[in-house]
Design a protein that fits this description.
149 residues, alpha+beta, 2,3-Dihydroxybiphenyl 1,2-Dioxygenase, domain 1, 8-stranded mixed beta sheet, binds (S)-Methylmalonyl-Coenzyme A
């Protein structure tokens, strides 16, 4: 079950300048930064609020580390802006399979590594009314499900 907006992914050319905009304009501070080589991004997570499912909602600022990455291609074509929305779930495997059975293209056979140790997959934007959609199970949740079972 999808229980929160986990994050909104925002593509930018200059991560440090964009982080500074969000800090100076809204007072949002960086909660976490990392480079995800597989996805080809350097990212900063800005925590906005905790959520009733025990998780949290973030803004995820994304700077491409390669021009041929998904975010690099997106930026070249569209410029800066909202790149994707991510829903949080305790069960990215089960929920992505259930969504695949509804005829929506799930981009990965198995969930991959996401921000802060999460497991992630994506749904094709052409099957989601133009919105690139990500499903996320956070590290704490993934660990809890492993222990449960
Ligand atoms: C592409 N399209 C989008 C889009 N990206 N539409 C809405 N939102 C987006 N972000 C549209 C294009 O405009 C095009 O439509 C069509 O989809 C095909 O796009 P393309 O430019 O030819 O590119 P493809 O087909 O090579 O790749 C698109 C695809 C790719 C969505 C499959 O970007 C992908 O695999 N994305 C998932 C991975 C990802 O985005 N990673 C970065 C975030 P037209 O009408 O022109 O044909 S990593 C992340 O977020 C991690 C770190 C985390 O959360 O932890």
């Amino acid at each position: 079950m999808l229980t929160r907006i986990d994050h909104i992914g925002i593509a930018c050319h200059d991560l440090d300048a964009t982080v500074e905009f969000y800090r100076a304009t809204y007072g949002f501070e960086v909660f976490h930064t990392e480079i995800n080589e597989e996805q080809g991004v350097r990212e900063a997570m800005l925590k906005i609020n905790e959520t009733s499912d025990g998780g949290a909602s973030y803004l995820q600022l994304l700077e491409p580390v390669r021009e041929d990455s998904a975010v690099g291609k997106w930026l070249a074509k569209n410029g800066e802006g909202v790149h994707h929305i991510a829903f949080g779930t305790e069960d990215v495997d089960g929920d992505s399979e259930a969504i695949r059975e509804k005829g929506v293209r799930v981009l990965y056979e198995e969930p991959r590594n996401g921000s802060m140790g999460s497991r992630i997959t994506f749904l094709h934007p052409k099957d989601c009314h133009g919105v690139l959609t990500e499903l996320v199970t956070s590290a704490a949740r993934a660990c809890r499900s492993d222990q449960a079972g």
